[in-house]
Design brief:
95 residues, mainly alpha, 58% helix
Length: 95
Amino acid sequence: STFEKNQGDLAAEGIALDGYSEEDELTKGMLSKMTAVYLDLGGSLMYMIFGTERYAFRACMANGIFGQDGSENDRLSGPEMIEAFSKISEIRGEK
């Protein structure tokens, strides 16, 4: 699979990766922005207004996907990514 194919698949699901490139390292903000769209999170009024990574991260924190520590600029480790995907899957199953 290539970045372009993955990007196209996500775009087909309504999760655009505008502004990101293959060379970008995955941050909590990037995953938060994709997650907020995927789960239609409304946990942050500021995210609903501005739609930025910062407020998407806060919406993810409000929904228990990320803890209260760190920022949207933190790079994700493998274990953090697995934990986030597990929580996203749990939330998606509840909807």
